[in-house]
Structure formats: structure tokens, C-alpha cells
Specification:
2 helices; two-stranded antiparallel ribbon; mainly alpha; 72% helix; 2 strands; single chain
Length: 102
């Protein structure tokens, strides 16, 4: 099962590291530069927080299905090129389809 989702796992680790560095190192460094917030600077800072949360949520919600769609299309293209028929069999204990080439 793990090898089926390897690309999604790698992309999640990469984004996790990037966001962790951003939140742990860059964010506090920027706060040191700002000093005491005025009302307008606090509003801008709050908007930045919301934007970061929305980007993270969109990435986590959209990238895994996109990667799966691309992989299914690549498999179907390879099957069409090779001229083989493709059959799906669902393993009873898992919802992951198993590809059977005939």
C-alpha cells in the first residue's frame, strides 16, 4: 500500500518541511523586525495567517486526488499503447484497486 502512495508521501514531506521552516524560523524573524503592532499591521498579519492556512488546506485537499488522477491516466495510456486489457479487482480488506493486466 505504501508504494502506491509514494509520490503523495514525498510531496507531503516536502511541503511539511517548507511550512515548518517558514513557521519556526521565518515567522518569528519577521515578528522581530516589526516590533509593536498597530491596528493596521495586526490586520495585515492576521490576513497573512489566514492565507497560509488556506494554502495549506488547499494543498492537502487537492494534491492527493490530483496525483491519483494523473497516475490512473498514465496507467490507462500505457495500457492503450501496449494493447493489453485492464481489469480491476478490489481486494476485500482494502478499498485500493489492484491492477490485473491480461
Amino acid at each position: 500500500m505504501r508504494r502506491h502512495y509514494k509520490s503523495v508521501e514525498v510531496s507531503a514531506y516536502v511541503l511539511g518541511i517548507i511550512l515548518s521552516v517558514l513557521i519556526i524560523l521565518v515567522w518569528p524573524a519577521l515578528m522581530l523586525l516589526v516590533g509593536v503592532f498597530s491596528c493596521s499591521s495586526f490586520a495585515i498579519w492576521s490576513i497573512l495567517v489566514v492565507v497560509l492556512i488556506v494554502i495549506s488546506a488547499l494543498y492537502l485537499g487537492l494534491v492527493p486526488p490530483f496525483v491519483e488522477i494523473v497516475q490512473v491516466r498514465l496507467i490507462s495510456i500505457c495500457v492503450q499503447i501496449s494493447g493489453r486489457r485492464l481489469a480491476y479487482r478490489v481486494v476485500q480488506k482494502s478499498a485500493t484497486p489492484v491492477l490485473i493486466l491480461r
